Amino acid sequence: MRVLIVEDDDAIAEGLAALLRAQGHGCDVCATLACASRALQAEPFDLVLLDLGLPDGDGIDWLRARRAAGLRCPVLVLTARDALADRVAGLDSGADDYLVKPFAPEELLARMRVALRRSAGQAEAVLRHGALTVDPAARAVWLHGQPVALRAKEFALLWTLLRARGRVLTRAQLQQALYGFDDTVESNALEVHIHHLRRKLGEGLIRTVRGVGYTIARWSEERDGAA
């Protein structure tokens, strides 16, 4: 998952970025709304974490304008403004959720998962794909009922592919989901993660579409192909 953090407090921004990177997510930090607008134009993001009191404007006005311009990804407001009127204004302006600082990291991660499930039209917290079961809250994976240990980037890559079942994701799209603008990425890092997932979960789960990218087929398609 690729997350855009819009926060002008360096300590808070760095803490959020460290939290998300430890989960295997790619993230970028913008300290101004102008920077955030440029980032959204340059790259696709799965989710935005938005402070409201930014140096160059109010996050509520910016969010309202972004939604009007077609921004579709979930946006979670993270702010010290705790008045009821502020919370209502944030939600009415297009926020998917509204958290008042300070908040527990575990709550933020849970609310992010809920926002992503809603955006994908997924009601159930645990995702099942044939013999594979994935619990994003526990960051746990089972294959045929047996636990499978995955590293953070491996889990993030698997989750990205599973959420896009039936679609082919390019190498660039997968790298964008795992890494931020400033991350140093080895040229074969993605292929190494794919190799490890295939070794742990079976060669047939992730398919290579030559010249395009990688995909996990919908479960019905896998069964039809095996018939």
TrEMBL record:
Gene3D superfamilies: 3.40.50.2300, 6.10.250.690, Winged helix-like DNA-binding domain superfamily/Winged helix DNA-binding domain. Residues 124-218 bind DNA. Residues 124-218 form the OmpR/PhoB-type domain. One of its GO terms (cellular component) is protein-DNA complex. One of its GO terms (molecular function) is transcription cis-regulatory region binding. It holds the Pfam family Response_reg. InterPro entries: CheY-like_superfamily (IPR011006), OmpR/PhoB-type_DNA-bd (IPR001867), Sig_transdc_resp-reg_receiver (IPR001789), WalR-like (IPR039420), WH-like_DNA-bd_sf (IPR036388). SMART domains: REC, Trans_reg_C. Residues 2-116 form the Response regulatory domain. The modification 4-aspartylphosphate is found at D51. Keywords: Cytoplasm, DNA-binding, Phosphoprotein, Transcription, Transcription regulation, Two-component regulatory system. Its main location: cytoplasm. The keyword DNA-binding applies. One of its GO terms (biological process) is regulation of DNA-templated transcription. The keyword Cytoplasm applies. It is found in: Cytoplasm. PANTHER family: REGULATOR OF RPOS, TRANSCRIPTIONAL REGULATORY PROTEIN QSEB. This is Transcriptional regulatory protein QseB.
